[in-house]
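# nightly structure sweep
# worker-07 picked up a monomer target from the shared queue
# config: single-sequence mode, recycle default, output format = structure tokens
# input follows
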Amino acid sequence: MNAGEPHPRIQILGGEIDLITPCEMMRFVDIVAGAGGTALVANHNLHSLALLQNSPELRAFFDDADLIQLDSMPVAAWAKLLRLPLSSQHRSTYLDWRDEFWRLANERKWRVFYLGGAPGVAEQACSNLAERWPHITFGFRDGYFDADAASIDNRGVLAKIEAFEADILFVGMGMPRQELWISQNRAAIRRGVIFSVGAAFDYEAGVQAAAPRWMGRVGLEWLFRLASQPRRLAHRYLVEPWRLLGPALRDVRAAHSTRHVRSFRKPAVDRGPVWPLSSAN
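# output follows
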């Protein structure tokens, strides 16, 4: 997949997800970052799809995304039941592609900025990563600031990001805060591929344990997380998915119709270099 090529986007559970593998996503990021452009890479799981039902602001974020990754084996299983082309090969979550990403970032000597986490966490994560990947330049800012778009705090964060000239901007402030922050501030970020990554740097800093990857591959990562943080995650994993019953019934009615899949090409906007870029780039 080249950054300028249209790609299929599937409609499922009230949202949209791109039929793109982690390898294709990485190729896209390499092209855009190499051209000094900007793009937004989002991801959908059951949590985001449930929140989407009653949040126009969150829907606007996903409408603006250049790529929307699948971050949910249950959604892949649901698509399989509907005989839709979305499958486990499209699952693309940070813990699965991080090693490939950091190898590429090190080879390209990218500048990576991380926004989020508790004070000290991003700093520790960057320090740990820099030991393994010495050719990457890291910048960071914790997520404890007034995120109102007009606040002095927020203007300072944007100024720091602009001065850093990131090739990659990871925003990890929890869903939906990170998505809403990106949506409100994207126009001011004129360089770099932007990812919403949740607790990615908590894992890199060692303050949160990651599920074994075999659990992710068989769709049990949620169980590991629930057992690790039951009070925080019980509602998300045991109650919230029932909000998707209505969208699931609509999926059943629409199954096998052409309404489920469309070709998607993000229109160019005035942000400097932005995909679609020509395949020659």
